[in-house]
Design brief:
heterodimer; A: about 290 residues; mainly alpha; 11 helices; about 80% helix; flat; B: about 250 residues; alpha/beta; 9 helices; about 25% strand
Chain lengths: ~290, ~250
Amino acid sequence: MDSTPIEEVERRGPQALWPRRSPQAREEGTRGALIAAGSTVAVFGFILWVVLTSEAWPKVQRQFFSWFHFKESFPDVASGFWLDIKMFAVAEVLILVIALAVAMIRALRGPAFLPLRIIVVTYIDLIRGIPILLLILLMGFGIPSLALPGVPRSPLFWGVAALVISYSAYTAEVYRAGIESVHESQRMSARSIGLTQGQALRQVIVPQAIRNVIPALLNGFVSLQKDVALVFVLGVREGLREADIYNARTFNYTSYIAAAVLFLLVSVPVARFTDWYTERDRRRKQAMSS
Amino acid sequence: MSLKLAIRNVTKSFDGKMVLRDVDLDVRSHEAVCLIGSSGSGKSTLLKCINLLVPIDSGEIVLDGVDIAARGVNPNQVRQNIGIVFQAFNLFPHMNVIDNITLGPRKVHGVNRDEAEERARSLLAGFDLIDKAEAYPGLLSGGEQQRVAIVRALASDPELMLLDEVTSALDPELVAEVLNVIRDLKKGGMTMIIATHEMGFARDVADKVCFLDDGVILEQAPPQDLFNNPQQPRTQQFLQRIIEAGRL
């Protein structure tokens, strides 16, 4: 070596601290990329070839992937899907708030809070034990049928309400895992400066808990974003319902594919974002602890 | 000097295991009392009982003439007069130093933010931490975190400070800065109960040293008496081991 490491860093920047890749290693890297590209093209090309040259393909294409039917059904399916997005947005906000309240009540200690704890534990156990579709049918058709004065009779309202009630129970458990992941010494420390139990939860425990469960909450977003389509059973004209109506009229399934594409357009980016966020969070925690 | 704290016949057990047995202890105003003894002897539990983080089974804890362990006492009010600092600092990692310190005064005492921050800054300046005011705990050294924890405990003007092995989790070269802060508190007349393994420090700063063994205060005396002329065989044995380890 004819220069010191410090001179190297000055000349080449921080990458001078890593070992320089040898010409062989660089060549192997290039070769690796070529192999990866080659094998990917080969495998997917083969699969495509098998599908497209099979006898059934023209029929499959006509029924599922018809450009004509895609264009025909798309405007209605898309406007229905916009209702899915709105239902998702309203429900998600309510779920995040209600679930947090439920989880905080469950985390309260002391004999005085026992009745409250019994109520929320019963709620969580009951709701998690019922199929979500059953709850949507029960509330979406059942409650309007009572014709109670002052109670909304829209299936849309009760369908979203059922989603909120069901998802809040699951999400409360996500928050609870977060609350339990905060070390007991934080609670003790908060109480020691005179905070009440509720203040300790709000100011100290919950902010740390939420940070710990953001990936799990985002995962719930992806799940709910699709499950809003379940209210189609109530006759609500959201995206899936519109696709279903088109199919009933034409006996062609491309409208379902149109709906699937719309759902994917939203859920795949959220899933990618969740992965990205989780990875960034993991790195940050590692950096903090080293 | 008047009696600040009187502990009478305090007993505590966890799952049937006695951790404190009939503990009696007097602490006078402006006095520093050191608790020594091996790990598991009950030092930490005693401190946590005094500020009611751990409820006692029986006995009395009389602070300024009031039994704070009695029924109907609001523990949150009691804790406003007693500061505690833990071995593991336990700062709130999601708040910066200023917010850590002002949380108690703002939420418990209803002090407005400006006033609380002004007071926190003057405390931080006094402990040579003013340049860390905006830092998050994760970026501070252990010694700095522990000094911030002490400032946080002081922020609500406690009349009694409980220090629970506050240097045990620190790298050796960071111990002195924390011990010096405690010496300053002593000079300022703070009443303190200090659980510690730092015998030299105990000899130096304590008005009274108590030796705990298996939940009992076996012996209590001024430091020169306890360290130079221990009466109980268990105390002699404990100090002998400390001397052999080169810690006294």
